[in-house]
Specification:
Number of domains: 2
Radius of gyration: 27 Å
Oligomer: single chain
EC number: 3.4.-.-
Protein name: CPBP family intramembrane glutamic endopeptidase
Strand content: under 5%
Structural class: mainly alpha
Shape: elongated
Keywords: Hydrolase, Membrane, Transmembrane, Transmembrane helix
Family: Belongs to the UPF0177 family.
Order of helices and strands: HHHHHHHHHHHHHHHHH
GO molecular function, one term: hydrolase activity
Number of helices: 17
Number of strands: 0
Distance between the termini: 57 Å
């Protein structure tokens, strides 16, 4: 299977979880501001917001051409009748129907909003993209759609038992495969949206929530998976129905420019020593001048502004020195922004896990000191926000200096290449000298993170992948500072 297929499928799950989590947070804030919004109302708001986010994301990547109405055959609606099996099965789980007008309308809206969002992502975008970009067969496309749809339900383990979550995931595989088959043979996304909406709307009306796992068993879910998998396979293979989602987009979008390009071979290039020396001087100058500013300036606001200006000068110098590398790498990287974002998110998760493990290991052997507060943490909220500008500039400057000048441009030199990885990682950790007040032990975890960023650059062969990963890593700290600033304003209001 092509690597792009795996990355696209995984990205559909990761981005869905992230987007839906943020959308639920917004929905809960709405409920706090407007107490009349119920729990199901929060669900509706979250699903619609998430749909809007994914609709916008698809215009950027993967640019799948989603077919909403197909060719309009009037008999297509009969293909969704098998969902009656689920309704009959769920009716045996002791439902508590409330058929008054308000709950009924809410249940209908919940079902349609959930169906709209999840079907748009896993059938409309994912199925269309797999066919249009990678020319997968219909059965394999439907199978991947069902598996990814199932994996999203793994997040439900936080609200219930692992066993019930796995039971729900087993059912989701079969239903996801069946919904994908309907979309493939009709090119009408509204049919799986309606089928999905009927099931979820029924559960919301019968149980007051989108959980029908009470009383469910592995055997019940296995029956659902087998029955709907068989029906879906029959739809895709029977001669009565032709697959109508083609393996070409049929639109004016030029997918050829997004096809995987051959990775450039690692070649041994001469190292420009003068540029390298100037690059090395940038973090040294930032450290020295920053320490001087702190020593000779008593006004805290003046300190922050001067340090920001020093880092900005370093950023401009680094960008000017290696502008040719940045431009040439960007020409390749811009065609894979979606994949790059997924790799970047994975890199951030790996970096924070690595930080935690290294720090815990140092604590266990008794060599880690207690304090690790940075200069920014002792500033007022306003100064911390201004000081965080250096955090936004750092990924660009530091990746150019430590990952490119001190490591990547030394590739193809055997043991020297990996020696430079160690040197650049140690230097990256030492560059945080002022942040940890010279406590060397506190810099060791950042040396390890520097090595991780170096490996990301080495295997991606693109500096922008390292920059994006580093930027997302630092952005979490900036978001924390912004939150602190907002809380300070609220508390003083």
């Amino acid at each position: 299977m092509k690597k792009g297929v795996v990355l696209l499928a995984a990205e559909s799950v990761v981005m869905t979880v992230i987007i839906l989590t943020l959308a639920i947070m917004v929905g809960r804030l709405s409920a706090s501001a407007f107490p009349v919004v119920s729990k199901l109302g929060v669900q509706i708001i979250a699903e619609l917001l998430a749909f809007g986010c994914w609709w916008g994301l698809n215009r950027w990547y993967p640019k799948a051409k989603v077919s909403w109405r197909g060719h309009g055959e009037p008999h297509q609606w009969v293909l969704i009748l098998p969902v009656i099996i689920v309704l009959l099965g769920d009716s045996t789980l002791n439902p508590q129907f409330n058929l008054s007008l308000g709950p009924t309308l809410t249940a209908i809206m919940v079902g349609l909003s959930v169906g709209l969002f999840e079907e748009y992502v896993f059938r409309g975008v994912l199925v269309s993209a797999l066919r249009q970009r990678y020319h997968l067969g219909a059965v394999m496309t439907a199978f991947i759609s069902g598996v990814m749809f199932s994996l999203v339900h793994l997040v439900n383990v936080s609200n219930g038992s692992l066993t019930m979550t796995l039971v729900q995931m087993l059912e989701a595989i079969g239903l996801g495969f069946f919904f994908a088959a309907i979309y493939l043979v009709t090119a009408n996304l509204w049919l799986p949206i309606l089928a999905h909406g009927v099931i979820d709307g029924f559960d919301a009306l019968a149980f007051g929530a989108l959980s029908n796992t009470a009383g469910m068993s592995v055997w019940t879910s296995l029956i659902y998976a087998v029955v709907f998998g068989a029906i879906g396979y029959w739809l895709l293979k029977t001669k009565r129905y032709a697959v109508k989602i083609p393996t070409s987009s049929g639109s004016h979008v030029d997918f050829s420019s997004h096809q995987p390009q051959r990775r450039p071979a690692i070649q041994r290039q001469p190292v420009p020593m003068i540029k390298t020396a100037v690059a090395i001087a940038i973090p040294l100058a930032e450290l020295g001048l920053g320490a001087t500013v702190v020593a000779v300036t008593t006004n805290q606001w003046l300190r922050v502004v001067l340090v920001d200006l020093i880092f900005f000068a370093g950023l401009c110098t680094a960008l000017y020195l290696y502008r040719d590398v940045l431009v040439s790498h960007w020409q390749r990287y811009k065609h894979h922004l979606g994949t790059g974002l997924l790799v970047g998110i994975g890199g951030v998760i790996a970096a924070y896990v690595l930080l935690t493990v290294i720090r815990q290991g140092l604590n266990l052997i008794g060599v880690a000191s207690a304090g690790s507060a940075s200069v920014m943490s002792i500033q007022t909220a306003g100064m911390a926000l201004v000081a965080s500008l250096t955090t936004l500039m750092a990924p660009f400057t530091e990746e150019i200096v430590f990952r490119h000048a001190l490591f990547y441009q030394w590739r193809g030199r055997g043991a020297v290449t990996w020696l430079m990885l160690i040197i650049s990682s140690v230097a990256f950790g030492l560059a945080h000298w002022n942040n940890f007040h010279g406590q060397l032990v506190q810099m060791i975890p950042y040396m390890c993170v520097g090595a991780l960023f170096g490996l990301i650059y080495y295997f991606s062969r693109n500096i922008w992948q390292a920059v994006l990963t580093h930027f997302l890593f630092d952005m979490i700290q900036v978001i924390a500072v912004i939150a602190m600033f907002i809380l300070a304003i609220v508390s003083q209001g």
